[in-house]
Specification:
Length: 258
């Protein structure tokens, strides 16, 4: 078993994780750890240990198929009426991005491509595609696309770490899987292959592309010197992310349908 002790509870982390594990154990047993017990002080969730290694290398076809199967199973779980929105749900996420861009744009020293990417992203956030801040397709969200949260046992992928989970939007969650910096910087996944695996309608695909801009903006902000992601990634990652963001912006991904 695993005893997970929470250093922070301000976002309801223990409650979110416990509720998600109970729900998944009921509807898709084996996809995530089995909930065993809760302790209140200090806050602890006791769960079964999940075998496997993180998907932190370039995916084989079998691994890609297994990853897609895991998330298709997750997104098919019925959303419960009393489930809170995931942490950093689309509306809050987009507002936070806009405010953060305004703060960071006051930096006096910044690589030209980074400054240009933030300027273009700031204009995009000021004129969002209609309905992008809405929950159009509610799903149960893991709410963290980090590769360490997907464990491969040689046959299937299981999911761990649900402390930010809640109700998410399908398109936002798919975009999170392809834009999470833990996979994107190293080119561990083919974004188009991941997106294609969900067989989305044209309207949902357009929303995925728009959310990719928002998530790529967030990761650029995280990678700037002095911010939480800067020292965790190779030197120059912010410039590479800026080029990626400009590419997404240049693809006209803001044309999400009404």
């Amino acid at each position: 078993m695993v005893r997970k002790r929470y250093r922070r509870t301000s976002r309801g982390e223990p409650d979110r994780e416990w509720a998600a594990l109970v729900l998944l154990d009921e509807h898709v047993p084996g996809l995530a750890p089995r909930p065993l017990a809760r302790e209140v002080e200090p806050p602890v969730v006791v769960m079964s240990r999940v075998d496997g290694v993180p998907l932190d290398t370039a995916l084989t076809p079998a691994q890609l198929a297994a990853m897609l199967e895991a998330y298709l199973l997750l997104f098919a779980v019925p959303v419960q009426p009393d489930t809170p929105l995931r942490h950093a749900a689309p509306g809050d996420f987009l507002r936070n991005n806009a405010e953060w861009i305004a703060e960071e744009h006051t930096r006096t020293e910044m690589a030209p491509e980074v400054r240009r990417a933030l300027a273009v992203a700031g204009a995009w956030h000021a004129d969002l595609p209609p309905g992008l801040d809405e929950m159009r397709d509610p799903v149960v969200a893991q709410a963290d696309g980090r590769v360490d949260n997907m464990l491969w046992d040689g046959e299937r992928v299981r999911l761990i770490d649900f402390e930010y989970s809640g109700v998410g939007d399908l398109a936002f969650e798919v975009a999170d899987l392809v834009e999470h910096i833990s996979a994107r910087l190293g080119g561990l996944r083919d974004p188009e292959a991941v997106i294609d695996g969900f067989q989305l309608t044209p309207a949902r695909l357009a929303r995925v592309e728009a959310y990719r801009i928002a998530l790529a903006t967030f990761w650029l902000l995280m990678l700037l010197p002095g911010n939480p992601g800067h020292d965790l990634n190779p030197e120059g990652s912010d410039a590479l992310q800026a080029v990626h963001l400009l590419d997404l912006l240049g693809r006209g991904a803001s044309s999400a349908p009404r």
